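Q: What structure does this chain adopt?
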Amino acid sequence: MGVSTGGMAVLRALLGALPADFPLPVLAVQHVSPLSGGELALLLDETCAIRVKEADDQEVPTGGTVYLAPANYHLLLEPEGSLALSLDPPVNFSRPSIDVLFESAAEALGDALIGVVLSGVGSDGSRGLRCIKERGGTAVVQDPADAIAPGMPLNALKLVTPDYRLTLAQMPQLFITLSEQ
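A:
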């Protein structure tokens, strides 16, 4: 999933509604200052039932854990299933970039992937969400009317017809249902 403006509130609401035993790993990019430490992961971990941590290079994601991209690093999913952190140049003026995560995960997981574009300014995530759809994955976009900043959802909707266009409050139940399939 990818989020920018309003990210802390959005992630707290969404991840806070997932159970500790959620069976899938969650990979997330939040646009943050390059100087930020791991505070976001710590704050979310304290308030969510599901475990939240910053991703480590070469870590293998497991169910019941949210892996946040560290500040100033792209987060990728390698074809063999491990995480990779990269200092490659910013994409869409962002590092970490949502598109970088989505495109690598789409290549690794194909139709088993669920991509989610949430509140934010700009177009990061749109191209990656299209890649997810092209590889048979599931595309979810936050309803722009429900977003703190509707730019990213609106731009995603210009490129992709999502499988689901939902409010933030509707998403946790969808993710639980999809994880059971």
